[in-house]
Amino acid sequence: MKADVIKLDAGKAGSIDLDDAIFGLEPRADILHRMVRWQRAAAQAGTHKVKGRSETSYSTKKMYRQKGTGGARHGDKNAPIFRHGGVYKGPTPRSHAHDLTKKFRKLGLKHALSAKAAEGNLIVLEAAELAEAKTAVLAKAAKELGWKRVLIIDGAEVNENFAKAARNIEGIDVLPSIGANVYDILKRDTLVLTKAAVEALEARLK
Hints:
single chain; alpha/beta; 2 domains; 6-stranded mixed β-sheet; 6 strands; about 35% helix; elongated
């Protein structure tokens, strides 16, 4: 499929061929859902913790005699049945991450790219470069291009001046091609790929 290439000043810079096997798939919500769940699960802190019976600080002395009270036969106030006792099978620190195959992760990224292309929210930029790290310059360009919530993916490395200028603009995220991921692509309204990013992603996903 063909796509127009633009410059930061909104001028045209020709066109580019996008691989249909990467940008022309019919997006599947189930694949994208599994990918987002996988990413968010891996990022989840998993630091929740409660005290078990062996960690609460009550005396272990037997509360009252075994027989003759007419009540239950208790021996330790750390038991889960008592207030402030240890929690039975409560949460402990653990990883929430689960596995997805490399093949599926590649497929998920292809579907995310195809989803943006199908919506008409995929823009190809000639280069994400600035002569100076001026936030005002990039903010003006973004306003003229109508970019509000946008993810910009560059090649192997992000231009330092461009990254610094984008750092203070709300709604603009910049990533190198190796950092391209389904969650960040879907989270933003518009996806902007540089020509270098297109080449890098096609090489990565073939």
